[in-house]
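Troubleshooting log. The previous run stalled partway through. Resubmitting the same two chains, unchanged.
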Amino acid sequence: DAKTTQPTSMDCAEGRAANLPCNHSTISGNEYVYWYRQIHSQGPQYIIHGLKNNETNEMASLIITEDRKSSTLILPHATLRDTAVYYCIVRVASNSGYALNFGKGTSLLVTP
Amino acid sequence: DSGVTQTPKHLITATGQRVTLRCSPRSGDLSVYWYQQSLDQGLQFLIQYYNGEERAKGNILERFSAQQFPDLHSELNLSSLELGDSALYFCASSEGGTPNEQFFGPGTRLTVL
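Second attempt completed without errors. Output:
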């Protein structure tokens, strides 16, 4: 699996967009970028994933650079409930599933 | 609510003992994963089962074992417990297929005294 690099922590004001970067310069062509988050001591929660194209769902947007060496998770209007650790994971997906290597993630603090 | 259930929520036991953690995946999910989260090691993958068969192994100790039953629920057995085994243990499930998301349960907090 490709290695990912994320900032240790970030702050964001409530109501503003939170942009969480992730570097994955050694990503290979068949590896997906996944984002999960973990709110204190709860089970991790899936946010979004992508391969080449930008993706958007009800929770967030994922922007992947053209060379696929980095990506940004965007929470368009951050709320206090978005305070969590965000994990960027690069992984080949297989028909039988895949194990996640969570790394250390980015601790996002949303402030009033 | 992810649809994944784990029992018990909390477990307190003594060193040297053996415990069993149980996980019921979401209806229809064939894959079950076990993860351990401790303060110093972060969230680590232990083992994956797919439709009853072991599919992948991570950093799982020999004192730990798991199985997935015909009804697809899974159990994680931890034996000869040590203080360092105190952690949150999460179970996740996924449909299988590619790509797919994992749904995590609320976890079992194990405290070894």
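Takeaways: The interface with chain B takes residues 32, 34, 38, 41-46, 49, 51, 87, 93-104 of chain A (CB under 8 Å). The mean pLDDT of chain A is 92.
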